[in-house]
Amino acid sequence: MDQPHHACHMAGLGRTGFQSRVAPGYRHVAAADWCLPRRRYETFLRSETSMSLDDQPAEAMSRRALLGRELRRLRKRKGWTGPQLAQLLGWSQSKVSRLETGQRSAALADVTAWLDVTETEGDPRTRVLDLAESLLGQITGLRALHQGSLVRRQVELQSIDSEAQLVRQFQPLMAPGVFHTETYARACIASANLTAERDLDSAVAARLERGRRVLSGEGPVYHVVLCESALRWRPHGCSPEQLRRLWHRVAEIVDHRNITLQVIPDSTPTTALPQCGFSMWSWGYGPDSQFALVETPAAEVTFTSSEDIAMFERVWHEMIKVALSPEQSRGWIIRFARI
């Protein structure tokens, strides 16, 4: 199994800055093509963090937000502050805050621990657990997800990354966001903007900021299984030369210590049919400390039940079996980038 490989990476994870290692035979990507338009992003972030849950549209008050309110009520009933509860549970203060505001999916194990420490029993306990279980497979429509802003989701993903130890992505269609150049990110976000939101520049900046955090050591370990077809796909607005720049960027950062990349060449027969790309976030190694995410044209689907996670794990390991090793993938990417 590949899990020990992840553990070794995490155990030796150094918080060093990004260092580009450019192999002979291909040029360095111009930094201006993928650097962050930081001012636009920071302007949005200041306004975003000042927005309370009550300021958001009614459609955003999802079951996850309702669960957060229940958890907050139980904490306040004990007379505890957020930091006090975090200390009792051995969690970070930000985890408590995000659970209470509905900004983070709640694992059943986390909800149970919360109920135990607040000594919640009887009907109140049952009600909260029922609400938590109803979220095990949550579907969120794009309009509710974006709430009028493309960048909102990018900021939320940064928050999720900041708590995770490991992010795994299987991507058969497009390069994952951590590899994006500015041009490629803009083309991808514009192509997926089915709700006609207007803050494209800020969304691009936020996506690049997410990648920057991973490469600077601020984010989790990333393990990506990437199909060759994902590298060849070219969204509207991305020229062949700009796509080539994406390939060079992937080749530059494939050795980064936060990133493990494995490639499945087009000619490789596979033993599973995943049917779509997916992402998995892990805070530990148990099924209760993970969730999986699938994006569709109309909605985003979150899976947190142990049965669902087990199915994603099974497909993930089938993909790992047929993919090139990280070392082989590195050589393959370098050769591919020279095309």
Automatic annotation (TrEMBL):
Record-linked InterPro entries: Cro/C1-type_HTH (IPR001387), DUF5753 (IPR043917), Lambda_DNA-bd_dom_sf (IPR010982)
Short name of any one Pfam family annotated for the protein: HTH_31
MF GO annotations: DNA binding
Limits of the HTH cro/C1-type domain: 71-105
Entries under CDD domains matching the protein: HTH_XRE
Protein name, UniProt field: XRE family transcriptional regulator
Organism: Saccharopolyspora terrae
